[in-house]
Amino acid sequence: MHTGNLAEFTDPPGVNGDATPSGGEYPAMGVMTYFDDVKSDGSWTETCVLPATDKSLCKVILGNFVARYAKR
Predict the structure, then answer these.
(1) What is the rounded average pLDDT of the residues 11-17?
(2) What is the pTM of this model?
(3) Of 36, 43, 47, 66, whose Cβ has the fewest other Cβ atoms within 10 Å?
């Protein structure tokens, strides 16, 4: 998903993708902020890699990141 200054992504198990780390036994879920103006202090990426049974925990972790860093 891509909205405004935020992109969400998921790398399936075994796929080396956008997340660090990814490519292992578990899916890697991530979000990235990006800002192209001079007032911002950069772009940020957060990744959560846990078993699929803990997907809800990753959503909480990534949601906290979005709440803190996506709205500048």
Answers:
(1) 91
(2) 0.79
(3) 36
